[in-house]
TrEMBL record:
Taxonomic lineage: Bacteria, Bacillati, Bacillota, Bacilli, Bacillales
Membrane spanning stretches: 397-420, 432-452, 464-487, 499-518
Species of provenance: Fictibacillus halophilus
Keywords: Membrane, Transmembrane, Transmembrane helix
Name of the featured protein: Uncharacterized protein
Tree of life domain: Bacteria
Amino acid sequence: MRKMKPFVIPLLFFLVVFVAFTLENLKTELKLPNEGWSRSLPLQTEKIGEVKPVFKEQNGMQHVYVPKENEVLSFQVTDKLEVKDKQTIPLSIPSPQDFWVQGDQFVFVRDNQLIHYDGEKESVLDQDVRGMDSNPNNIIYFKENEILTIDISSWSVHSIMKVPEQVYSTVLNDTSDSFISVVKSSKQTTKQVKVTFHKPDNKRSYKEQIILDQEEQIYENHFGFYFIENGNDVTVYYSLFNNNSGGKSYKIFQGTNQLNANTDWNFSLMTFLDNKGTKLENPKFIQYGVDENGQAKVLFTTRALKSNDKEAVNVYEARADGDVWKTELRSTTNYQSLHPYWMGEDSVMWLNLVGYKEYTFSGASKNPEVIEKSLNITKVDIKEAVSATVLSLFQGLIFAMSSVYWITPAVLFALVIYIVKIKLMEDEDKRILYTILALFLGVQFIFIQKFFNTHYYMFAPDFLAFTGSSFVIPVMLALLSGAAVWYGRKQDWSKLTAICYFAVLNTFFLSLVVGPYMF
């Protein structure tokens, strides 16, 4: 036991710091993404690969369909994020793509064939099909140079139009009979992208309005078009992917115009800001919607700060506020989120990465019961809190390396005395020893003030970031180091050994307490 005395106080102090930092990190893990929203909760489904789920509202319930190998997983999600009526359908649908579903009937594209599944068997409706889009009442699909529709009552196909360019995509929204077509034609070094809005005039004809017609560079891709109709006003959104000079970026543009207007469409870049005014870049997996007040809202994922010191690809919801879009965090998961979707007005769900190419569904809700449930501490919360503590303590080692700045003057003074008047060192003259100690603490106290900067006060917990902490903490840790020397010093130690032990302990304590937040 006597041999362990020098290590008792350092070990106890380490345990106290470790527990305190872990509890502080646990508070961060338990923090709600925004007031009135729950933390992320896993949905009781199963692990799946990286596929695109399809969300459909049927009979007032949200249904989720997940294409898997040779089957489709289907389940319902309640407003309390409970999974019900989980079943599998023996049907092979390639992912990612949208498909139409109603009851046990499906329409989808596989191997360039448009297929109708009636719950028992598959029937080929058309050949050489390149893609499709749908809403509950409409199915539109396209071939190389033709756009067609399906009469759901008879499962017959009808041509809407033929175009000279290659059809790139067709886009419906959830409620409208209108649609957007995107065609692209290749040039020598560029592509020409032409986007047209089509509004039904009568049963078999459409009024057309070109909303975008411009060159697309070889490193660009206009995609993800969506529109919202409000009388004669139409708002169109799209994403622009840019892969120029090795740097990839995603941006969203918005434009509003009136049908049959003679003015050109003007699109402006949408700027997303979080609650701290930080711009969120590269929004992906965009979902568009309209809130209860008829105002547009956007759901997307991007990499940003989840907390002061942790980044993750999380889900954000955005609404327009003047010329910018103010965002609110919706997910608190720690890694990568994909394909977010609104489950009514008060819930959101998405795919959450949990392992190598493995995902599960997670969700968040405004339901009070869900919020309360989400505050329960889980094994994942404890694991993440402990991991964050271990990582921060390792970062403190960088601070320990900086101690050379205040150790060096004391060491140089001791060397000079040793060379000039060695007897004073051998006799352990108190004046010399106190001067060494004063140089160590004095230079440290002056130098360490620079580390208590904006970064420290931003990231350090409140109990370490109070007014005057740059003076109080070094003094308190110096006193603790002295107490540890007094308690743990062995009888055969010289005074110089005790001073060295003090310097090591003091640096160790500072590295544990303030080191993790200095850089």
